[in-house]
Amino acid sequence: MSPEQKNNLEKQLWAIADILRGKMNADEYKNYILGFIFYKYLSEIQEKFGDKVLQDSGENRKFIENHFSDEEIEALKGASLDELGFFLKPSELFFYLVKKSKGETGDEDTFILEDLKKVLNHIEQTSQGTESEEDFSGLFSDVDLTSVKLGKSEAQKDEIVALILAKLQEIDFKLDDNSSDILGDAYEYLIGEFASGAGKKGGEFYTPSQVSNLLAKIVCNEKTRIKSAYDPTCGSGSLLLKLRQNAQITDYFGQELNPTTYNLARMNMILHGVHFSQFDIQHGDTLTEDRFPEKTFEVIVANPPFSAKWKSDADPVLASDERFVKYGKLAPKSAADYGFVTHMLSHLDEKGTMAVVLPHGVLFRGAAEGVIRKYIIEQDNVLDAVIGLPSNLFFGTSIPATVLVFKKCRTNTDILFIDASKEFEKGKNQNILTDDNIQKIFDTYKNREDLEKYSHKASLEEIQENDFNLNIPRYVDTFEEEEELQKLQSDEKNINAEISGFCAELRIKTPF
Predict the structure, then answer these.
(1) Which CATH number fits domain 200-474: 3.40.50.300, 3.40.190.10, 3.40.50.150, 3.10.180.10?
(2) pTM for the whole thing?
């Protein structure tokens, strides 16, 4: 698919969202649009796989013909569950419901709302007791077909749902081109658009793609294969999936607190062609319900909620949790940032790399955070780089963020500081890191370069002299131009004062 075709697909998908826009806010209608797209995708890969099974067995039939005995359906179901992780009968396919809604199936009843409810439930039910059960369980729980926002009557709801499905049916996903990434990327585009429309809530489920790209480049660092990748606050899974553009990922692991976003992440994985056996996305609070207590990972990426509140040492279980206790203090109740950091460090392989997006306060706040920061730097020696990002990159907040990069088994003790806060492209709603901006940050990180007004490799002694305060301006001198400007402004003020004084004196001596 060409860039032009991809752009056209994105426009078509976004135009369908217009049908629901105005009936409900973006955070609500995204569940319907993304859920229906996912259902169409599952239908199309089921049809494609069913045709392959029939062809391999010498059958000169198509899966959509819907003329199978119970025994044949069971055989097709078994093969589909093994390969796809779910099963849809021909009469449950997306295209069939669209045909029924138009009266083209021979059914007198063209009402499809109840059929759709049953189909979405059946997708989940068929995986029960199989290897894919966790990946499909509750996947469509946020597609509420009973909501009055779809319409006051059942007929009105049916009409709006039928219209959306018919519009989606007109779009060719071109799965025969093995281009699941194209559809996946279009899905990512929609997620980003919904995040923008959702305002403050958007940041809860989506990390801007340019930030995801930066983190992916840093943790992969030109590796071609990575055995395991983990995101403890995975949102829609965009950060994890961005890693694929830099390396081949064997297994993905993630955890997400928000149940709606948890469903979205699993859909996103499947839409990007990640087999159900290659990802394990769990639901729950990472800090209090660690779903992977015994696992370590080669790369870890995360964009946790900034300065989230948590139980901290008020919970005796957390106060004795080995993920937190060795640092001498737990992150304060008002800011869980270092709770996420130390959790991630406990899951990082001995030769692993992790990159996490955090608010600037983690660099200089004192008390418990200062104690933890000092231990991480002085005792563990795992902090590898501090990268300052521009402001207004993220949905829901305009504050500038920082990326902290951690590596275990470091042989050096210096820390690289990069001030990338002034290099960006101004966007309509959010600022944007361009490809050149990202490449410059990555090249500077990879080469550990000292660049004037941009980066500095600080020794442990420098950091100790600064009492483990990591505020970037302490290490990267970016104030000279401002001082020169202030001097020029001061000079201009003095000159203007002299001129005014001279003119006043002149008026006194020479009355007009």
Answers:
(1) 3.40.50.150
(2) 0.89
